[in-house]
């Protein structure tokens, strides 16, 4: 009986040490997984920011194109109005010359 108690005590000590190592290993694995998840989230956030920047560039370019198209339209209207005015003047001059 005297040998049984120390043997059980030694066995309990070995099991508890082994269990602690497993717990430490599991904690390290969990920390590594968390670190990987944070890194992946940071990469994803960077990708989103890059995409947002690209979208902003596209919006800016579209805005510039719209302004250019509006300026071209205004110029075309001005040219058409000037041509119409000249045509009216010519018609008026030709109608007064014939009288």
Structure description:
This protein is mostly helical and 99 residues long. Helix content is 95%, strand content 0%. The chain contains one helix and no strands. It has one helix at residues 4-97. The longest helix has 94 residues, at 4-97. The relative contact order is 0.04.
Helix and strand layout, with pairings?
Layout: H1 4-97
Main sheet specs = none
Helix percentage range: over 70%
Total strand segments? 0
Rg on CA atoms, Å:
42 Å
The average pLDDT value, as a whole number, equals 83
Q: What structural category characterises the helix and strand content?
A: mainly alpha
Please report which band the strand proportion falls in: under 5%, 5-15%, 15-25%, 25-35%, 35-45% or over 45%: under 5%
* Number of helices, where a helix is a run of at least 4 consecutive DSSP H or I residues: 1
Question: Roughly how many Å apart are the termini?
Answer: 145 Å
Q: What general outline do the C-alpha atoms trace?
A: rod-shaped
What string, H for helix and E for strand, traces the elements in order? H
Question: Which residues form runs of ≥5 with pLDDT under 50?
Answer: none
